[in-house]
Amino acid sequence: MSKANDEYIPALSYRFLTPFYDFIQKYIVRDVRYKALLIAQANIQAGHHVLDLGCGTGTLAIMAKQTRPAAEVSGLDADPDMLKVANYKSAQMNAPVKFDVGFTNKLPYPDQSFDRVLSSIMIHHLKTPDKWQTAREVYRILKPGGQLHIIDFGKPVTWYGKLLGPLLHKFEEANDNIEGKLPEIFGAPGLKTEILGNFWTFFGDLAFLKGEKV
Ligand SMILES: C[S@@+](CC[C@H](N)C(=O)[O-])C[C@H]1O[C@@H](n2cnc3c(N)ncnc32)[C@H](O)[C@@H]1O
């Protein structure tokens, strides 16, 4: 089994593609649609402390802040170049979000400090040991009653997703996703997890996961 590590896979696998990230997300992956659904699922309230895990260029975190301006929203990502774009967008859109550089397997936040942890298409970037360690970290930083909401590759449900499944399976980091293991991994530290739905994309079937610290 591979080891947990402090390296990360850039958003589009290769750094030279980073400037095209938002364009691809918007026009090919239709990210705003599933991010809006994830935010609705999270039911963020005024005063909530919200973290976007692996926030990339900050689209989800900014949308969360725009949806619930009285929530305090943070975003964390390992890639400072992505966070530069996130900070620029947040200032342009007058949606203040605190962006932090960091790794999901060692979150720089105190125990029980967030009401909601959101994450969009990031978990499939993590090797298996990092997924398990990230699950422990998410559990640690969630308040009692706090919730985790993930949208990421899941067990294929459409014929198209099933066709792509074997291709995605070639990427070690995506295997747990395609095999439907995310509820088990994020449930292990103590969250009550369930899959609430799916979303078709050109790159494969995504699944909406909810976890609650009961
Ligand atoms: C496909 S992008 C998704 C970005 C954003 N959540 C979105 O939906 O547009 C994956 C992001 O995860 C970040 N990432 C990968 N491994 C990470 C890790 N171990 N810790 C923190 N961020 C990580 C990458 O830098 C990248 O910005």
Structure report:
It is a single chain. With 214 residues, the protein is an alpha/beta fold. The chain has a domain at 21-153: Vaccinia Virus protein VP39 (Rossmann fold). Helices cover 36% and strands 25% of the residues. It contains 8 helices and 7 strands, in the order H-H-E-H-E-H-E-E-H-E-H-H-H-E-E. It has helices at 21-29, 31-42, 59-67, 80-92, 128-141, 159-168, 175-178, 182-187; strands at residues 49-53, 72-77, 98-101, 114-120, 142-153, 192-201, 204-212. It has a 7-stranded mixed beta sheet with strand order 3-2-1-4-5-7-6. The longest helix is centred in the middle third of the chain and has 14 residues, at 128-141. The protein is globular, with a radius of gyration of 16 Å. S-adenosylmethionine (SAM) binds at residues 8-11, 25, 31, 54-56, 59-60, 77-79, 82, 103-104, 120-122, 125-126, 130. Residues 8-11, 25, 31, 54-56, 59-60, 77-79, 82, 103-104, 120-122, 125-126, 130 line the site of S-adenosylmethionine (SAM).
CATH class group of the domain at 21-153: Alpha Beta
Number of strands: 7
Class derived from helix and strand content: alpha/beta
- Residue share in β-strands: 15-25%
Q: Which small-molecule ligands are present, each listed once?
A: S-adenosylmethionine
Ends distance: 31 Å
Trace the largest sheet across and list its strands: 3-2-1-4-5-7-6
Mean model confidence by pLDDT: 92
